[in-house]
């Protein structure tokens, strides 16, 4: 197709999404991936972001990601964090250790704990219920815990259906579910990079059941490894379809695969995709996922400056301060930011920074604001 015709088609696709007269089809999304200039994607995604969310505000949350165990029954080729149950470096945090981390989080103004582990083959449902009850009783903090692969593993280990398991965890204190473990929601991709983890349909079913119980969760995507562009679009479609059905996702978060210390980098000769691809993919996510309210910036993998720029590519939220993040750190990403620095980046970009909670309700400002 001649360049002028390509530009016209890109314009037509983007105009329809910006004025909300048409929904992005898979074919059009792929066309954008393959043909749209980056500034055009930015302009369109930013227009949608301004329409969907407060144009003058960028939110963020202060929380801590606690990895309660690194022992995992799965093998993911992109993961440098997990250990087998026999590995001397394997750990399970004691409740006292958990408590110390949560106290520190609250002192720093944190209002949420993101609790994720490896999938421990021996821990039973009672242990998780005790842990949730202990945290709720002692600290009363929002618990954003257990990604869908963990829930799936708990269900298998305890021979419980998702609904019963999730209802028990909710009763013990589970408030919301993180979107981790989605990687790419296409089984061809999942089978190539993971073993012992849930399938696409199982990942979606955990969220469907949780939403059916009245719960909310987030959706994620880790890209830039063995997937094709069409498979990224398929991932968007699976998320959008479930969201049409349940409306239970509060936000979408995409990040790039971090290759350092992982076997995938060697076995598939995968190199890290850069900020150009990150920004394109994030902008197309904003355009495609018209039924998901918020898109979070991934500054932990991209750095603060790219996180700041992504506020013009569809993101309306800077995600978390992430007081601790072992999984991404183990794979080489080591970006860190204080709350003051994050607020400074948001202000520099022309927005007012606001602390929020999981439900995007605005929280009291910190003393130094
Ligand atoms: S990514 Fe999660 S499920 Fe996969 S090996 Fe690492 S800890 Fe286990």
Note the topology.
Elements: H1 3-18, H2 26-35, H3 38-52, E1 57-61, E2 63-67, E3 75-76, H4 95-107, E4 112-116, H5 125-139, E5 142-145, H6 148-158, H7 162-172, E6 176-177, H8 187-193, E7 194-195, H9 200-212, E8 216-223, H10 229-246, E9 249-256, H11 263-267, H12 275-288, E10 294-296, H13 299-302, H14 304-309, E11 317-320, H15 326-330, H16 339-348, E12 352-355
Parallel strand pairs: 1-11, 1-12, 2-4, 4-5, 6-8, 8-9, 9-10
Antiparallel strand pairs: 3-7
Helix pairs in contact: 1-2, 1-3, 2-10, 3-12, 4-5, 5-7, 6-9, 7-9, 9-10
The protein binds iron/sulfur cluster.
Residues 72, 74-76, 79, 81-82, 118-119, 149, 197 line the site of iron/sulfur cluster.
Structure report:
The chain is α/β, with parallel strands linked by helices and 369 residues long. The chain contains 16 helices and 12 strands. It has helices at residues 3-18, 26-35, 38-52, 95-107, 125-139, 148-158, 162-172, 187-193, 200-212, 229-246, 263-267, 275-288, 299-302, 304-309, 326-330, 339-348, and strands at residues 57-61, 63-67, 75-76, 112-116, 142-145, 176-177, 194-195, 216-223, 249-256, 294-296, 317-320, 352-355. The chain has a 4-stranded parallel beta sheet, with helices on one face. It has a 3-stranded parallel beta sheet with strand order 11-1-12, covered by helices on one side. Strands 2-4-5 form a 3-stranded parallel beta sheet, with helices on one face. The radius of gyration is 20 Å and the shape is globular. The chain binds iron/sulfur cluster. The site of iron/sulfur cluster (SF4) has 11 residues, from strand 3. Iron/sulfur cluster binds at residues 72, 74-76, 79, 81-82, 118-119, 149, 197.
């Amino acid at each position: 197709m001649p360049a002028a015709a390509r530009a016209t088609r890109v314009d037509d696709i983007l105009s329809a999404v910006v004025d909300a007269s048409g929904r992005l089809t898979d074919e059009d999304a792929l066309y954008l991936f393959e043909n749209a200039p980056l500034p055009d994607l930015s302009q369109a995604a930013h227009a949608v972001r301004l329409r969907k969310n407060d144009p003058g505000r960028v939110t963020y949350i202060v929380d801590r990601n606690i990895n309660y165990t690194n022992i995992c029954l799965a093998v993911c080729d992109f993961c440098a964090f997990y250990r087998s149950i026999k590995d001397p470096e394997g750990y399970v945090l004691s409740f006292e250790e958990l408590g110390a981390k949560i106290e520190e989080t609250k002192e720093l103004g944190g209002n949420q704990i993101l609790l994720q582990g490896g999938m421990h083959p021996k821990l039973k449902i009672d242990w998780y219920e005790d842990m949730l009850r202990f945290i709720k009783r002692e600290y009363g903090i929002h618990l954003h815990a257990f990604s869908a692969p963990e829930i799936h593993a708990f269900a298998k280990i305890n021979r419980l259906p998702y609904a019963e398991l999730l209802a028990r965890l909710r009763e013990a204190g589970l408030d919301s579910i993180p979107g981790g473990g989605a990687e790419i929601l296409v089984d061809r991709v999942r089978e190539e990079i993971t073993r012992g983890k849930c399938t696409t349909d199982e990942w979606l079913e955990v969220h469907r059941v949780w939403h059916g119980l009245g719960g909310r969760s987030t959706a994620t995507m880790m890209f830039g490894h063995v997937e094709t562009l069409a498979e990224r679009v398929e991932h968007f479609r699976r998320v959008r379809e479930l969201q049409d059905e349940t409306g239970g996702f509060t936000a979408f978060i995409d990040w790039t695969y971090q290759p350092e210390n992982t076997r995938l980098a060697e076995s598939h000769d995968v190199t890290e995709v850069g900020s150009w691809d990150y920004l394109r993919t994030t902008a197309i996510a904003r355009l495609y996922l018209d039924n998901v309210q918020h898109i979070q910036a991934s500054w932990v993998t991209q750095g603060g400056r790219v996180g700041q720029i992504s506020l013009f590519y569809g993101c309306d939220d800077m995600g978390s301060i992430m007081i601790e993040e072992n999984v991404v750190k183990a794979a080489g990403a080591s970006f860190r930011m204080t709350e003051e620095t994050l607020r400074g980046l948001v202000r520099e970009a022309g927005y007012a920074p606001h602390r929020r909670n999981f439900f995007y309700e605005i929280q009291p400002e910190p003393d130094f604001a």
